[in-house]
Amino acid sequence: MNKPFDNYALAYDAHFTNTSIGRLQRNRVWKHLNKFLSINTTLDILEINCGTGEDAIYMTEAGHQIIATDNSMEMIGVATEKAQQREFNKTPLFIQCSFEDLKVNFVGRQFDLVFSNFGGINCIPAQAIGKLMDDISHLLKPGANCVMVVMGKACVWENFYFLLKGKWKTAFRRKNKREVDAVVGEEVVKTWYYSPTIMKKIFTEKFDHIKTKPIGLYIPPSYLQPFFQKKKILLSFLNFLEGIFGGIPLFSNLADHYYIQFSRKECK
């Protein structure tokens, strides 16, 4: 089906990036990232599934060197246009590249951080994550970090919302072991859901687990933006609760997303 260039990418920004809920969730991710982005060293960072470039631009403005990839040329186009409107000491480089082609496209390169935000990992089945894990291990320096923000298998917000609407199957869709058709804006995306336990099991061969934190435990999923559009005080209160309870690893799989960080094992 033919669509105007960047139609989906602009819709993604409209339905998530530029919403108050989307910004609150992204700020939670950045808070965790800042703990090692703020060091007085320029990091060489590879971002995968970069979307429309929000994180790449943020990390570039923090003084780091970014190569950002996405399988969608629409996303890359919008991200490039955003970057052209900013002034950088080092401009982020946006490249169309699928997960499958990362190792080939960056052969011989090693990065200080590989980063994947907001469910890009959920767009591939478990066996593909195993291959991606192996490829990432080759793209990272020993001891360097891989950070992913993943959709877990038991989002309380999602259970509650869809049960109220009488959509029992949708309410517990994340429990499904097979792919699920998830609606993103006006698009239907094949989606797989992974608990932190599953991700640790996949990555344990070549990575050490550093930490896992919930993202969107009290901050709701972005599809509830219309309900919260004029409820700024309530959303601020939920963000306050997120600040209190969002640091508890035990709650990670109950949130809309979770932040999980691994460190590549030192070569023996």
Q: Assign the structural class, choosing from mainly alpha, mainly beta, alpha/beta, alpha+beta, or little secondary structure.
A: alpha/beta
Low-confidence regions: 1-6
Tally of helical runs: 11
CATH H level: which superfamily? Vaccinia Virus protein VP39
The termini sit apart by: 50 Å
Number of domains: 1
What is the CATH top level name? Answer: Alpha Beta
> For the residues shown, what is the average pLDDT?
92
Q: CATH architecture, please?
A: 3-Layer(aba) Sandwich
Radius of gyration: 18 Å
The major sheet is characterized as:
7 strands, mixed
What CATH calls the topology is Rossmann fold
Shape: globular
Widest sheet, order of strands: 3-2-1-4-5-9-8
Strand-residue proportion: 15-25%
Helicity level, as a percent range?
25-40%
**SSE order, as H and E?**
HHEHEHEHEHEHHEEHEHHE
Count of β-strands: 9
Question: How would you describe this protein?
Answer:
- The chain is of the alpha/beta class.
- The protein has one domain (7-264): 3-Layer(aba) Sandwich (Rossmann fold).
- 40% of the residues lie in helices and 22% in strands.
- It is built from eleven helices and nine strands.
- The protein has helices at residues 7-17, 20-37, 54-61, 73-84, 102-105, 126-139, 156-164, 168-171, 196-203, 225-228, 232-245; strands at residues 44-48, 65-70, 93-96, 111-116, 140-150, 180-184, 187-191, 207-215, 257-264.
- It has a seven-stranded mixed β-sheet, with helices on both faces. It has a two-stranded antiparallel ribbon with strand order 6-7.
- It is globular and about 50 Å long.
- Residues 1-6 have low confidence and may be disordered.
